[in-house]
Fold this protein.
Amino acid sequence: MARINLLPWRAERRANRQKEFYGMLGLAAVGGLVLSFLIWFHYNQQISGQNTRNQFLQAEIQKMEGKIKEIEALDKQKDRLLARKKVIEQLQANRSQMVHLFDSLVRTIPDGVALANIKQEGEILTLEGRAQSNARVSNYMRNLEGSGWMTNPDLSIIEAKAEAPGAAVVTPTARALPYAFTLQVKLANPNAPDAEGKVAVPPGTPAPANAPPAAGASPAPSPAAAPATTPPPSNTPVEKPAPTNQGSPAS
């Protein structure tokens, strides 16, 4: 005999499927929440680590800024010391310049020229004086150019002037030196080393005793090799040499 189930099995199976669906939906929701929490935790740790690194970098940047300020202060102090050292070196190099300068002024001035005033402004030296003629002034300028301690002579004024303005009597000096001149020269230091580190010796400056002879120059004769000179007889008159100018021969 056939058995027929008259119970609502379809509704029961539908209810079971709904329960399974809701259970799987709950599990999916719980899994999504857990996954979201894990993702949030991961990125939160990344942000926290980056913030820590940023704070460390900021602290190191502040330390470096302090060191940079110290380096700048040291650089300024170094520049001041170098400037002071440069001034000291210039003073040391030019210590004997004025001595050589006045010695050159004495050596270069020819006969027929007299200096009345000397004025220095930096590297420019202004010379004022009187001369017998224009040729004497030209000769004096050539001597200054070849001295080694003064260069670029520039004649500013030369005029025939019997005496200074306001003078009541014309002096013999004004009659002998009727031309008043003013010229400017630039001071030079031949002892200063050039770009190659060599020091030029000015004309008329004695070379050191231990300096080697220049190329092409013949060695000086020894005192023993010099010819002996015999004094003239007592009854023979001795001729005195004529006085010569220290500079170039006067015109």
Summary: The longest helix spans residues 9-93. The longest strand covers residues 150-160. The chain has a mean pLDDT of 74. Helices lie at 9-93, 97-108, 134-145, 172-176.
